Structures are given as C-alpha cells and as structure tokens.
Amino acid sequence: MSRIVGLTGDETAAEAMRQINPDVLAAYPITPQTETVQRFSEFVANGLVSTEMVRVESEHSAMSACVGAAAAGARAMTATSANGLALMWEIVYIAASYRLPIVMAVVNRALSGPINIHCDHSDSMGARDSGWIQLYSENCQEVYDNLIQAVRIGEDKDVLLPVMVTFDGFIISHAMERVEILEDEEVKSFIGEFRNSHSLLDIDHPVTYGPLDLYDYYFEHKRQQIEAMEKAPSVIKKVGREFGKLSGRPYDLLEKYKTEEAELIIVAAGSTAGTVKVAVDELREENVKAGLLKIRAFRPFPYQEIAQVLKEAKAVAVLDRSASFGAQGGPLFLEVRSSLFEKDRRPPVINYIYGLGGRDIKIEQIKRVYEDLEEIAMGRRPTQPVSYLGVRE
Amino acid sequence: MKEKGWKEIPIGGLIIEAGNAEKYKTGSWRTFRPVRDEEKCNHCLICWIYCPDSSIIVEEGKIKGIDYAHCKGCGICSTQCPRKAIKMVEERSK
Fold it and tell me: Which chain positions lie within coiled-coil regions (chain B) (predicted)?
C-alpha cells in the first residue's frame, strides 16, 4: 500500500531518508540541498529515525564522516550540491576506492563562478570519473524511487560502490509534486540490513582501511573498481525490476519514450526529460516521429543499450546541461556519440549545451531541436556539431 | 613475495590480515644503511626503542644485528645513538 502526498524534491529526499533510516547521516547545508537535511534533522529531533546525525563543519568533513561510518559497518548517507560536492572532492574518490556503499543525494546546481545557485549538471558531471554510480532523476517520484534503490544497488556484494542520486536544483528540489510513498515496512524489508564484511568495529577480524598503495598494487585495485562498475548494470536492472514489483514503477538503465520507430531522438537527463516528453507528445500529434531516450544511469554508462536504441534513428540530438571546456562537446554527447562508433549503421548526432546556471528551457526550444533534426534527417549536413540552446549571441 | 592479480586480493586496498606488514620487504627503499660499531655499542637499546620499523634485532637484551630486509634507512637510530655507534653508509659503497 502506498500513500499519495504533495512534496518538494528536497522533502521527498528527506522522506526517503527517513524510511531508509540510515545509521549515520553527516551533512553540511548548501542551497538548494538545504531543505533535504533540514527536514531530515526534524525527523531526528522528533525521534522518527534512529540515525546518528553528524553536523559537520564542511562537506569535506561530511564525506569523511560517511567514509568512517561506512568503514565501521554503518549505513551512511549525505546530501549536497555544487560547491559542496566540489569541497568533498578528495573524499568522494576515497569513498569509491574503499568500496563503501554510501548514498548521496546531489541536488544539481551550477558550480561557481560566477556564483550561481540554480540548476545545471556541472557538479555531478564533474564527478563522473570518481567511481560513484550516478542515477539522474526526472521528477520528485524518481528522487524517492532512486534513493531507495540506490541503497540496494550500492550494497550489492557484486558492486559495493557509492551511489549519487541527482535531481535538478529548484526545478525539482523546490517544486511540489504528487509523490507515491511506500509503507515504512515495505521500504525496510526492500533495503534489508547492511552488512559490511570488513567492519572496523569487528575486533575478531581486524582490518586496515587506507594503507599506502603504490605502483605494485594500486593498478589492481583500480581494475577491481572497473569490474564492480561493469557488474553494476545488471544489478541496477535487477533492483529496478524488484522495485517495480513492489511499487508498480519498474526501472531500467534508460527510459525509452516513444523511441520505437522514432526517426528523430533527443537524449536528455534530469528534469528536462519531462519537458521533452511534452514536446514529443505534441509532435506526435503532428505525425512527427519524435522520441526521447532518457538517461537514468550515467555511471555506469549503458553504451550498448543506447546504441541499440539510437542506431535505427535518422538523426539524434544530445542535450547537455553542462559544458566540458575544451572538449568536443558536452559529456553526455561525447559518450552517446562514442557508443555508436562500432555500429555499421549510425545516425548523425548533434549536441546542444543548454540550461547553464538555471537558464530555463522551454517546449518551443525543444521543438526547434526536433526541427533541426528533421532537416538533418532529410540530408542537410549539420553546420556545427555543438550548438548553444538559449544563449544570447 | 609474489605479486598477486586483481582477482586474488581484498577489494578497496584493505588489509584484512593483522601483522602482515612483515611480509612486505622495504629494504630496497634504502639509500643509506645503518652500520653498527660493535666496539662502541653498549646495548643501551635506545635505537631499538626509536626504530619505526622494528628493524633492530634484539635477543636476551643484546643487539644481535639489523634487519636489512625491512630497514628503510631513515637514520633515526644513528641520530639517537648516544655513543655514535651507528653510522649511515651509502648503499653502493660497500
């Protein structure tokens, strides 16, 4: 049984955290993540969770406390945004390399500078090589669903990696939506107990975390991390199916929205996927064969599945909500296009950088992208591989 | 010690066996080796107390030698020795 409530993205994340009831939550406030932890701290104060809440002095300390807690065998969580994630950086990599399944909500916000508090994906995209699994959420419901699944995915014995669940700052974090919440007991039994087989507190089996690891073994430990990431897709799919049985909302690595027989496909992640769906629906009314491929898992990157969906399309546009300065395009674009390279048949793929610093993206703009794709599908060569949607010239 | 492949070792760089640092030979890190002068040494054991790598071999209260398989050549023993009985000698000059 589930109940239907109206919650903002931040409140939804807090509600998921309440039901997960982690042993430790260490966090530092930063807009637009603040309300997640603020709301959770009320649950702590009211005795609704048994979590040890650590009010640290910085995000670097927040992640450090999570690493210590998880190494001691605790289920640890945190939440942050943008510069907070940037300040954590050093320990973000360490959490992944120690193979600690910490779950972190990342409320996507533009990195400074100039200082900006609104949404783009520069923060989490910057952390794409840190060794964390990354799940992007389209709306409040997905924030809830992804956080609960993240616990299971990260703690799977074949994976043992930390997981970031991202959602767009303000657009999701501060917008109230209809959210279906499972029963506390259902979540509790779905996530089960966390057992760290190498706990620092297990004095019968002493363990050292973080010893010096030089040219003779560091490479082997990195190879193990790569292997864990390669095993993650099947675990993400398995957990997504099980979650579907519980909630009626199954999950996969990607969401294919009207991509069957679609000739023009947009690839997007985050809240913009919802806007693209509206554009697709309207264009389908006009018999334009438009479709959307939504990226849920960016790490691990489901390149085979992506190529399978896109190879029959006539033209593809990838929307990136972050810039990779000096690269050939946005991070999503580079990997989507690369995933098609081995295919004999591959459509032209173009890139749009959009929405930086919270710049709004409208249905009309997305329809213009489909118009561009239509022309390319008819044989016009793209004038440039990368365009900037919504920037003033 | 034979180096193992990535499938054979604990994940995350964890050390799950207590006291196994002994298996990791660090003698090759040394540039200068401590050489003890038997004549000057009065077995006060100050070097044994200070050695960070437990490389001063002691039996029945007497220094028997130096464990060159683990000694990194830090020179603390030589600095601390009150009788200047330990000299640091460059490795290549035998």
Answer: none
